[in-house]
User: Fold these one by one.
Assistant:
Number 1:
Amino acid sequence: MKISPEILNLVPYKPGKPISETQREYGLSTVYKLASNENPLGPSPKAMEAVKKALDHQNLYPDPSHYDLLQTLSQEWGFPTKQLAIGNGSDELIDLLTRIFCEPKDGVLTSVAAFNAYEVSAPANRAVIHKVPMAEGFRFDLPAIADYFFAHPEHKIRLIFVSNPNNPTGTYATKQEVETFLEKVGNRDDVIVIFDEAYNEFVRASDYVSAQKYINKYKNLIVLRTFSKIYGLAGFRLGAMIAPAEVVEVFNRVRKPFNVNDLAQVAANAALQDKEFIERSQQTCWKGLDYFYKKLEELGLPYIPSQGNFVMFDTLRDATKVNEALLRRGIIMRPLLNYGFKTQLRLSVGLDHENEAAIKALAEVLKEVPVLT
Ligand SMILES: Cc1ncc(COP(=O)(O)O)c(C=O)c1O
């Protein structure tokens, strides 16, 4: 069997451990999953109501043009529908954009410790990933990324991915940094700049800006959003893209006609308009983060203040061992070895009782696993 070397060497994305698997493996009935930055409140109630009503016509294919959802997106986000597209999670958007813009051996540029999907989609589409080290504080080094792009024409970099805020670090690029970066790499014909803003709605930093503000200023700029986080629809698989009309047109040619199923379209349409739920989700996130910060400080564990719905912290120990001991206590956090972090874990905000259980278990485990010297 001949398989292309890029695919053979591809390291797959490692999702959070499912609750059912953890229950089975550890013989536990109660397991809390705080590993995948999901919305602990469940799906938007308005979305659930709409989905129940839509169940009776699931014998029919979904609307391949995504008409209703695009209309609502257009109203909510203020872009014409020809600049909007949706995919089967932002995962699909990331993958197809790589396929569309990269020829074999072309380069995809991002940061070290950026969201891992860019690194998976590049080789899957025969492209080559290039990563620039982070700046101090685990932040995207946008000036260094721009410098790398200009210094390496031989890499034929066609895509630059910036996750803002970034997962797993929770750090963000400021408005000033984003503007300076776009002035350098914006409006070029040879590269597309993609801002992945999956956590945009959770940001509290006053100097953050969504790159959607600059969509009409730079013809090579794309912004990605997801319904998996604030809208609580991760299981439905739905991501959205704001882009130049030409990009949307090409994307719609390449994507599968029924890439987003009917229930996902219906759910997202209702969730977009569920303002009460969005606000409640933000409050839950911020309250949970503040609780984690306080408790991590009490436990003496360094953490990075986060603009997402999760926090990355340093266990000061072998994180694999800490994680294993947490799993035995029914707490699923996210190990970050695949990002090169050996002592850190990522903890997603849950409901109050889940957050408390996670911290209680962590405090116990810290006594069990020795500090690395
Ligand atoms: C930065 C970032 N982008 C995209 C995604 C993927 O979202 P989706 O569920 O829409 O594929 C995630 C999910 O964790 C993420 O952290």
Number 2:
Amino acid sequence: MRILLFSGKGGVGKTSLAAATGLQLSRLGYRTLVMSVDPAHSLADAFDLETSLFQEKTNDPYPIDPRLSILEVNIQKEIKRHWREISTYVISVLRTTGISDVEAEELAILPGMEELSAMMYVNQYRREDRYDIIVLDCAPTAESMRFVSMPTTLEWYMKHVFPFQRGLLKAVRPVANRLSPVELPTDSYFANVQDLFGRLDGISDLLEDANVTSVRLVTNPEKMVLRETQRAFVYFSLHGLTVDGIIVNRVLPQAITDAWFEEWRASQAKILHEIDEYFAPVVVKRVPLFTHEVLGRERLEELSGVLYAEKEDPAAVSRTEAPYSFVKRNAHYEVRLRLPFAVKGEVGLFKKGDELVVEIGTLRRHIGLPTSMAALTPTRATLENKILTVEMREG
Ligand SMILES: Nc1ncnc2c1ncn2[C@@H]1O[C@H](COP(=O)(O)OP(=O)(O)O)[C@@H](O)[C@H]1O
Ligand SMILES: [Mg+2]
């Protein structure tokens, strides 16, 4: 199975491009699912589907044609299905603050639930071998990052915090419940967490396997959008995912010669050049600004025709180079990370247990070290040719 993840800033064209890619894949014969992970779904809208018709079917893929289905994950239904114990607990805590039941239920949708729910579906469909390809239409960049970092964060929590917390609570609950105004979580809450974790089992391996998961970053030829795309590129790499394509959408076509757009054209040309340079050797595709919205199947087919050559396979694996690698030198070991845009001053490094922690801006990534390197400490970091090399020695 292949997973293609479309990510980028809000409004750049992720949904349109994910849908158009789905059409191309199904035309080539793949059993394809396009799944919206953005809580502000617009996938059904892109296909111009009657929403009332579609809504009833949510959380069950909706067939567009025999080989293509779409899915918008409905979080309320998911909560009833998978998150009951957790949300019941959160609601009970919120109630003690005096807010209304309705508000409590709204607030009990925790950040990340959408993403985790979507991942459970990916995992389930993989086990059932239901699709050849799942195209993920992601939420804007920040949430996408949460999507890909969730499994590792959760794994870390389950390994380090969960057993401790559960055991501790078992011991203190009888006393604490008499003293504390807030009821402590029951054992069924923990059972729910454990069950959810089980459903996510193996997902981070899938996301980090370049032969399974590829990230396609969607951008526009504008400076602000590009900056976000560059950050996303680093962050995805840090999380072990492979970005194997950049799509620049809404490029002004040559046909526009109106003086009004002259300045736009000049700045776009500059940014397009910058994009090609930055992301090389990653393939950069360009899609023109159309004369109309990309709405409905016909328009999506048109977009698909511009984006892909007739026989071109969007699922082809074009890059498998790991975003980071571990190497043994003579007397020391090295961890190498490809960090195309980070400058040295912005990268923070330290060791925590058997993990190397890399910080860039506000993002933190725990990199589980191979056993052979777990006892070593980082001694030196150098950034050269966009590769951050961390030396690890016995300290
Ligand atoms: N190349 C394009 N030319 C004209 N309109 C476009 C183009 N790409 C996307 N659109 C339109 O822009 C809007 C936002 O696109 P969408 O795919 O929903 O972006 P995102 O999912 O990134 O928020 C939609 O109305 C879509 O039809
Ligand atoms: Mg969208």
